[in-house]
Amino acid sequence: MGLDVTVPLGVTVGSLRDTSTGLESLASGFYNDGAGPELATAAGPVAGLDTGSACREVGDAFLRRAQALGDAASTFAGKLDSAAFLYEHGDSAAAERIEFDPPEEEEKRIGDDPGEPGYDPVNEYEDALREAGLLDGPSDGFYREWLANAAKNDVPPEVIVDIARRHNITPQSFDVLKGMERVTDNDGKTYFILPSGVSAKDARDATLMTYVLNAGTGYEDSRGSGKNSFAETPYAADEVQRIIDRQESNSWSYVGAELSADALPLRQTEC
Q1: Segments forming the whole domain that contains residue 75
Q2: Which residues make Cβ contacts (< 8 Å) with residue 11, sequence separation at least 6?
Q3: Both 163 and 47 in a single domain?
Q4: Cα distances (angstroms) measured from residue 145 to each of 34, 126, 140, 149
Q5: What does residue 242 show for φ and ψ, rounded to 5 degrees?
Q6: CA neighbours within 13 Å on the CB side: how many for 234?
Q7: 223 found inside a domain
Q8: What is the tens place of the pLDDT at every residue in 99-153?
Q9: In terms of domains, do 61 and 178 share one?
Q10: Parallel/antiparallel/unpaired status of strands 190-194 and 181-184
Q11: Would the CA dihedral through 69, 70, 73, 76 be positive or negative?
């Protein structure tokens, strides 16, 4: 007896969430992989010797590889969680637009320095944040995406450290974006669709964190192209504060979000 493909498949939201939670737990294990840190720590007594240096380098390499596996698991878990949210709220069409194709296995080795195959510039931002006492362990999820966007937009690590310190940006700061449908514009910027009934506070926080996540407006790239009439505003802690101040003075504009679903503003000057 063959399978009747005309019958819609049933979706169990609870199963999606259970699987998402399991993958996040798996990802956490990769992020907190003991082999790398323990090997690096063991090198402490002989730090001045070649063997100590080698142990630290091997430990760091183990940690980076574990982190790469954790990133893949965390990304898939996030997609499952978003799908569960959308199915639960009756938007099956949006849920089924989410691409669940597994990432292709990469055989390239993870480089340690710029110019090496597989080098990840996010490492520099993580190191700067750790040295400033603003990050424990590797980054993941939206927080890591923030650092990747900063690297792509040539935002110096010290600017990211300043933003994180002055505005208390932590991995949990991006939680407000979880479960929202993602939209990408023609410039590659990411935005999110506010769900119906979202609170004014969550709408305000999501708008701010979308700006933070993108690590810049991209106006400078469009200057002279006729795409927009705005001048580029430097991405910095002062600009984040300006947006916060503007949101507070225009708090009434977020109340309507509690009544209907709407797309987040696509330009930071509209915050």
Answers
A1: 13-96
A2: 87, 92, 95
A3: no
A4: 24, 12, 8, 6
A5: -60, -40
A6: 8
A7: no
A8: 766 555 444 445 556 666 567 889 899 999 999 999 987 889 999 999 999 999 9
A9: no
A10: antiparallel
A11: negative
In three-state secondary structure terms, 97 is: coil
Contact 193, 180 (CB under 8 A): yes
- Does 81 share its domain with 139? no
Give residue for tokens 């090496």: 116
Q: Tens digits of per-residue pLDDT, 153-172?
A: 999 999 999 999 999 999 99
pLDDT-derived band at 5 (thresholds 50, 70, 90) equals: very low
User: Which position has the token pair 């965390």?
Assistant: 74
Same domain, 153 and 250: yes
Do the domain assignments include residue 42? yes
Instruction: Tell me, yes or no, whether 126 and 197 share the same domain.
Output: yes
Sheet holding 190-194, edge to edge: 181-184, 190-194, 262-263
Q: Which of these, 181, 5, 214, 163, lies nearest to 82 by C-alpha position?
A: 181
Strands (DSSP E) contained in 124-236 are: 181-184, 190-194
44 and 131 in a single domain? The answer is: no
The reply to whether 82 and 184 lie within a common domain is no
Domain end (from 80, 96, 112):
96
Report in angstroms the alpha-carbon separations of 105 from 27, 60, 77, 80, 101. Answer: 17, 21, 18, 20, 12
- Is residue 258 within 8 A of residue 199, CB to CB? The reply is yes
With 60 as the cut, is the pLDDT of residue 203 above it?
yes
